[in-house]
Amino acid sequence: MEYFVYMTNDCNLHCEYCSVLLDSAKHGIPLRPNYSDDKLINLIAKIQKVQNDSKVSIYLFGGEPSLEYMASLRLVNAVNDSLPQYSLQFILHTNGLLLNKIPSELLDQLTAIICSINYEKIPHYMFAESYFAKVLNNIILTKKRKAIVTIGRLTITEKTSLYTEVLQCAHFFDYIYWQIENKSEFNNYKNFYNTYTYEINITFMYWLRYLQNGILLKYVPFMAAMRFLLFKDRSDTEFSCGYGAGMIYIQTDGTCYACSDSVECGDHYIGDVNEGVTLLRPSLLDLRCVNCSYRFLCMGRCGRMHKEFTKKQVSRYCALNKYMYRLFIENKASLEDTITRYPSLVDELKKKDLDLTEFTP
């Protein structure tokens, strides 16, 4: 199970597309956790027992968790002391601005760092001393301190360039993942579709040329699509993101949710640290996905999308991702041939690192 623990609702970077950051005072939610670490640990133990799951992944989340390094370290130590019977991993989900300040005691216990990149602040010139340069320098410094898995997480909106951002960031991270911004309506869907699909195509062709020479560029959506196309190693009846089944978000007041978005509305509420949680376990067979031939590649994309968006808007997200998956289906023979010529690629595709973030943009 994955537990996303809000270490704070505060942040030192306010991104216009952020659907996680809350006005704590407005919504009556504390800035920092008001429940004890023991409460959270007891909840985790109960859920793990019910689920008969031996693996616990704790994501230090927010807000910006790097603002609460010492509280994060206390939680990690408490979990290690209390739940030694489980396979534990700790992941920091950060904007990277304070990575240079992370205590060695905390860094030593992390499995991975996911760094969200704010596209609004990526400069087109004068990189030196910029936000972007600071984040990338912090990633480099952190990798020198520990050989830790790093994932650059990009949010793709109507204002961004997928191709440009992937190529700008990929060199500095072990993996790159991008997520299309979740919104109930696009400003100009036709323009966005044309731009996004064009850039998916040129990014895929760039990725494929390297792959055909035995080099796997670690672009998570492409790696996942290739893995599921060739190996089909998991069920396609549950959401790929884990919505309602494999992940729980724990807010600072102890309330628990199936998704990090729209917490203030309570739409995805599933319980709390005192009373426990009830996993929703929605099935894709009960949704529009049931007869979709792309389901084994997409696995529903996003639970929140199906719950909150109109059928028309869901269809638009489906069209964006179907375009990407068609590129893989059309090139399946070439992908199979490449795997045959470079069998070591199979191990790369099946690494557990790939499960640290979502699969479907």
Helix and strand topology:
Layout: E1 2-6, H1 24-27, H2 37-51, E2 55-61, H3 69-82, E3 87-94, H4 104-107, E4 112-117, H5 131-145, E5 149-156, H6 162-169, E6 175-180, H7 189-211, H8 220-230, E7 247-250, E8 255-257, E9 269-272, E10 276-277, H9 295-298, H10 303-308, H11 311-330, H12 332-341, H13 344-349
Parallel strand pairs: 1-2, 1-7, 2-3, 3-4, 4-5, 5-6
Antiparallel strand pairs: 7-8, 8-9, 9-10
Helix pairs in contact: 7-11
CATH fold descriptor: TIM Barrel
How many β strands by DSSP? Answer: 10
Q: How would you describe the shape?
A: globular
What does the radius of gyration come to? 20 Å
Structural class: alpha/beta
Distance between the termini: 21 Å
State the fourth-level CATH superfamily.
Aldolase class I
Offer a concise description of the structure:
The protein has 361 residues and is α/β, with parallel strands linked by helices. It has 13 helices and 10 strands.
Provide structural commentary.
- By secondary structure, this protein is α/β, with parallel strands linked by helices.
- The chain has a single domain (2-356), classed as TIM Barrel.
- 39% of the residues lie in helices and 15% in strands.
- It has 13 helices and 10 strands.
- The protein has helices spanning 24-27, 37-51, 69-82, 104-107, 131-145, 162-169, 189-211, 220-230, 295-298, 303-308, 311-330, 332-341, 344-349; strands spanning 2-6, 55-61, 87-94, 112-117, 149-156, 175-180, 247-250, 255-257, 269-272, 276-277.
- It has a 10-stranded mixed β-sheet, covered by helices on one side.
- Strand 3, helix 4 and strand 4 (112-117) form a beta-alpha-beta unit.
- The longest helix is centred in the middle third of the chain and has 23 residues, at 189-211.
